[in-house]
Design the sequence.
């Protein structure tokens, strides 16, 4: 298995006009059709030969959706397919299934300033393109996901986030938020059922409308074509990486005076720990607002400043290949240490241990050429002063369970643990009186627990097909759900584990997840999405199970 194989991309096949006319009778004439494979980020969910199209504008999207409704087809918006969970396509979707992929990334990419603090963007635009455009106008965001290839629509559908809370003494800047990207939405345009015309139509929703709350994070149960986002003045960020603090110190129980995760959070507000399996020294990244370049920092004028991570080194690729092709899973400790060695040497060799520049250039750091691994994901809502406690307890449990598996000759994890911290989706940060909080964002505040003002994001990554991974990750999941009643799933990643599968635990799907938002909130969101799409054109078999 090569790095290239790990980064497979969909294959597009021109449609035979005769076959298209026979299989999709009456399809809108102005919208080009083609056959396309679907591959999610890690290649665990695939489908071959699905019909796909690329509407040139939102009006063509409406034509396509109405055709699908009238012919009993389902529509799945596709951006970059950079996700893990079956929110777009479910595994086993046959090539002759009545499922139409609608490509947003080809044409729904418009960008314009709506005001000095708002940008209007098509949902097919990538985060890199969006942030580059903003930077050119002196604008930016507080935090963003690391991959620049994500489409905006995909990011908003699953409340994508970065890592940021206010540092000690830091005041939130106008137009900025410490929550998810969904919390920036001022208005959105979606394709919804129009009772008056008896068809689907475009409708713009203001952030103050009750129905907008369900669309701000819709999980693929809607089709949004355009959004207006609140933004603010851009900041220059310094990002310092270090690999000299042992996990025992960084993740120690609270109360000591060591170099703890929480101490860096207090100092800078923007922290990420990347802990390679079977190693003792995490890769700690600390961002801080720095209007002028610190003396020791290297100025960066473009993103993706860790080439040793974005381009899989031969040693790492060879080890990963042996593990997958030869079932040599016992090499997990070797792989973990090799990745740490590569990061340690690479930070020095590329002068990237201390970088500075406009926010985009330090926030975006993952390319599609990186090693592709599967991931689980959870947000633990807690109070700011409990972050170190959550991190310490989680890492202690992870370390203990990994050691127990290893003692039995089992190696369920060969990737990293990744830890980030954000604020919640405070609608007041949108700067609009009466703004609604996203109903289904993991960062939705809990009115009954106002002290919970912070989310700790916890992810564990491992190569696809790793034996015992599901059983191990189920134990992690149960630990979080049972130990922290503020736990919610990270929609784009893995959750609802059984001992041998993911997204299959019926209790988690049917009870735990709705309960994590509150039955009333979950019911409200489900009801709105069903009313706006009563024919469930925007859905699939998995979403039908999730929204029963």
Sequence:
């Amino acid at each position: 298995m090569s790095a290239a194989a790990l980064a497979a991309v969909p294959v597009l096949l021109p449609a035979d006009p005769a076959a298209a006319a026979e299989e999709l009778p009456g399809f809108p004439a102005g919208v080009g059709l083609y056959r396309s494979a679907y591959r999610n980020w890690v290649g665990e969910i695939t489908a071959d030969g699905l019909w796909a199209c690329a509407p040139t504008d939102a009006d063509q999207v409406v034509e396509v959706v109405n055709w699908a409704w009238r012919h009993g087809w389902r529509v799945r918006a596709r951006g970059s397919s950079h996700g893990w969970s079956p929110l777009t396509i479910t595994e086993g979707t046959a090539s002759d299934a009545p499922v139409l992929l609608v490509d947003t990334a080809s044409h729904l990419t418009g960008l314009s300033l709506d005001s000095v603090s708002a940008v209007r963007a098509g949902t097919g635009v990538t985060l890199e393109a969006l942030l580059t455009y903003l930077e050119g106008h002196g604008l930016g965001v507080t935090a963003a996901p690391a991959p620049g290839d994500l489409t905006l629509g995909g990011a908003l559908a699953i409340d994508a986030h970065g890592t940021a809370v206010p540092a000690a003494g830091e005041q939130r800047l106008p137009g900025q938020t410490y929550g998810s990207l969904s919390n920036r939405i001022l208005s959105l345009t979606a394709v919804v059922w129009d009772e008056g015309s008896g068809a689907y139509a475009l409708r713009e929703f203001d952030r103050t409308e009750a129905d907008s709350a369900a669309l701000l994070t819709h999980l693929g149960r809607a089709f949004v074509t355009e959004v207006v986002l609140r933004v603010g003045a851009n900041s220059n960020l310094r990002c310092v990486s270090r690999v000299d603090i042992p996990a025992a110190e960084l993740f120690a129980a609270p109360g000591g005076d060591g170099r703890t995760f929480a101490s860096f959070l207090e100092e800078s507000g923007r922290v990420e720990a990347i802990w390679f399996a079977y190693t003792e020294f995490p890769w700690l990244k600390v961002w801080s607002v720095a209007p002028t370049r610190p003396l020791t920092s290297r100025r960066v004028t473009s993103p993706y400043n860790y080439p040793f991570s974005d381009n899989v080194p031969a040693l790492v690729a060879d080890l990963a290949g042996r593990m997958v092709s030869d079932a040599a899973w016992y090499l997990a400790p070797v792989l973990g240490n090799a990745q740490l060695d590569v990061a340690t040497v690479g930070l020095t060799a590329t002068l990237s241990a201390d970088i500075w520049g406009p926010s985009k250039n330090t926030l975006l750091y993952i390319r599609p050429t990186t090693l592709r691994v599967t991931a689980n994901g959870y947000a633990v809502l807690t109070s700011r002063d409990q972050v170190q406690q959550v991190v310490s307890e989680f890492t202690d449990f992870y370390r203990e369970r990994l050691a127990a598996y290893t003692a039995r000759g089992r190696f369920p994890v060969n990737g990293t643990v990744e830890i980030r911290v954000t604020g919640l989706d405070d609608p007041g940060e949108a700067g609009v009186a009466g703004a609604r909080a996203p109903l289904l964002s993991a960062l939705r505040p809990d009115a009954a627990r106002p002290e919970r003002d912070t989310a700790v994001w916890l992810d564990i990554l491992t190569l696809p097909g790793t034996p015992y991974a599901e059983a191990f990750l189920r134990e992690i999941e149960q630990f979080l759900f049972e130990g922290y009643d503020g736990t919610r799933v990270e929609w784009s990643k893995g959750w609802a584990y059984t001992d041998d599968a993911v997204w299959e635990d019926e209790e988690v799907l049917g009870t735990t997840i709705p309960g994590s938002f509150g039955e009333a909130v979950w019911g409200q969101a489900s009801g709105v999405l069903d009313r706006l799409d009563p024919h469930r054109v925007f859905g699939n078999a998995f979403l039908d199970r999730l929204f029963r």
